[in-house]
Amino acid sequence: MTESTINPHFRCGYIAIIGRPNVGKSTLMNVLIGAKVSITSRKAQTTRHRITGIDTVEDAQFIYVDTPGFQTRHSNALNKTLNKTVTNTLMSSDVILYLIEAGTFGPADQQVIDLIPKDIPCILVINKSDRVKDKAVLLPFAQQIAAKHDFAAVVPVSAKLHFQMDNLVGEIKRLLPENQAIFGPDDITDRSEKFLAAEIVREKLFRFVGDELPYTSTVLIEQFEQEGDLRRVFAAILVERDTHKSMVIGNKGARLKDISTQARLDMEKLFGGPVYLEIWVKVKSGWADNEAGLRAYGYE
């Protein structure tokens, strides 16, 4: 950016999206940036990494950070690593979006509130507000939660229906500091295509296998090549047991075929070109037993 094009009133900053597992953080970020860079699933705790989504407009750049849902149970190596990711992200953010589900608030939600730094502006985002049949209960519910922290704003939304997104963006922009853009105007994430390919396969894995498969199962991209517009992706789904392998493959390979087809279609949409995708399923016992193993498989 040259000196003559610098806008002294341009706003740019990092916006952390936090909340307990499965309140819609990934869906919200994908809607806010207008592209699918963070995986979504009805299965809780599918986001394991710090995912960055970028939206640049004429006078602002929004850098959204989708965090794993904060874990309050099962104090294993994976959950400790996930929670460390959440707390580190909060401390380096300019604005925080604290996401809860309309009409639902429990101890796990309160534990997330307790993590919010008092010196960083935070917006209370009440998601899935369309599911509340009696709208008269929304206001007292919002007032009840708003009393638990000094929130900069309270915005009821429906990420799925894109309801109140403009209002939410306006509140975020108001709180962003005056800074020049950090990323290019066409960037939508700081993650590599290889990483995004792995996340897409993992989303389809949980979507088709569901609760039958432990969330510790993961995806490793063994090879990623590009020839012109064509991308060749060779992926391995890593599971803990032979029984899990059978679940993923399905009867005569039908389930694995569905996973592969849907993942390829999503990759082609995101990458803007044809994709050749091959997926294997492998048993890798002990791969997530310690923090060193987690780092080796890309956990941060």
Strand content: 15-25%
Distance between the termini: 31 Å
The biggest beta sheet reads: 6 strands, mixed
Strand order within the widest beta sheet: 2-3-1-4-5-6
Q: Would you kindly provide a written description of the structure presented here, covering whatever features stand out?
A:
- This protein folds into two domains: 3-175, 3-Layer(aba) Sandwich (Rossmann fold); 193-296, GMP Synthetase, Chain A, domain 3 (2-Layer Sandwich).
- It contains nine helices and nine strands.
- The protein has helices spanning 25-33, 77-91, 107-113, 138-146, 165-175, 193-209, 242-249, 254-271, 291-296; strands at residues 11-18, 51-57, 60-66, 95-101, 122-127, 153-156, 218-227, 230-239, 275-283.
- By secondary structure, it is α/β, with parallel strands linked by helices.
- 33% of the residues lie in helices and 23% in strands.
- The protein starts with 10 loop residues before the first strand and ends with a helix.
- It has a six-stranded mixed sheet with strand order 2-3-1-4-5-6, with helices on both faces. A three-stranded mixed sheet has the order 7-8-9.
- The longest helix is centred in the last third of the chain and has 18 residues, at 254-271.
